[in-house]
Amino acid sequence: MKSLYHICLTAHSEVLTRNLNDVRALTNGIALAAYRSDTEVMTDSVMSTHLHANANSDNTERFVTSFACSQTKSFNTRHSRKGPLFDPGHFVRRLEGPYHIQMALSYGLRQGMHHGVCATPFAYPWSTCNSLFVRERGACEEMPRFHTRNELNQFFPKNADFPDVWEADRNGILLRKSFEQLEMVQNWYGTARAYMYSMLRKTSQEWLDEQRKDNVDSPLITLDLIEKGYSSEDVSKMLLNEGNPKYVKKEMDDMSLCQIIDNEMIGRFGVGSVYQLDSKQKSKLADELRFDLGIRSDSQISRCLVMKYDR
């Protein structure tokens, strides 16, 4: 029997989305793994170092293994990389009770805002957030660019099995309405107003009290529970990003920095991937990022240059 789960996979020392091809592979990979494992995906958020998904499944291990194996293979091929891609283990939490479920859905959809990538969840492009209550919010529905199997095959692994009804946007990324149970998610929120309120409200004691009304034997869904691998200090900073009227966009997100590294910097060393650099070459580029480009975050420099990756 299927149950609803919140699932998170991480790769905190690297960047999963160095370019648009990586975003497409991850998003489409979620859909393909779900189709192979008879899993019903509700929502997803693809971040630079991790991803969240809420899904109905009777075998989460099969879904996660199918996804992780295929993504590791394709990512390693694209970037001349070796070894496992994701951090050991993965977070899986069974969801019971309407308030617990709505909380898990909301925290997953609010990832862009929590991580300071954008001012509101609706400004983050790589999640289900903008696919819900589209007309009710007065938003424009994204039109499909690719429809047929022949068109879609170019964006999937060879001999991939998928249904004829799937459609993709101009970048070859599957539309969420093709493979996710959006109507079911909308039912959990009830109305567009309730949904928008859940996207923009601040985390408070009220949300915890609401979950207690479920009267289920499950831990309360909190941000620090589902943000596997982040310290309490990191989570506190994420919470500060909720509705911050003084929000200032990050000077450069991970993908933008990776694009500079991959397209403008590594070529001088005669390599085609940052994964082919040695430690001295990485250190030299790290200094350039700090002093020439003014990148102040050592952790961002480390993951974009994969400083912890050993060839």
The helix/strand class is: alpha+beta
Taking strands numbered 1, 2, ... along the chain, how are they ordered across the largest sheet? 2-3-1-4
CATH architecture of the largest domain: 2-Layer Sandwich
Low-confidence stretches: none
Give the proportion of residues in helices. Answer: 40-55%
In CATH, the topology of the largest domain is named: Alpha-Beta Plaits
Q: Give the overall shape, derived from the CA principal axes.
A: globular
Number of helices: 14
Sequence of secondary-structure elements: EHEEHEHHHHHHHHHHHH
Instruction: Write down the CATH class of the largest domain.
Output: Alpha Beta
Mean pLDDT: 94
Oligomer: single chain
For the sheet with most strands, the description reads:
4 strands, antiparallel
Q: Kindly report the name of the CATH homologous superfamily of the largest domain.
A: Transposase IS200-like
Radius of gyration: 20 Å
In total, the number of strands is 4
Strand content: 5-15%
Instruction: Determine the N-to-C terminus distance.
Output: 43 Å
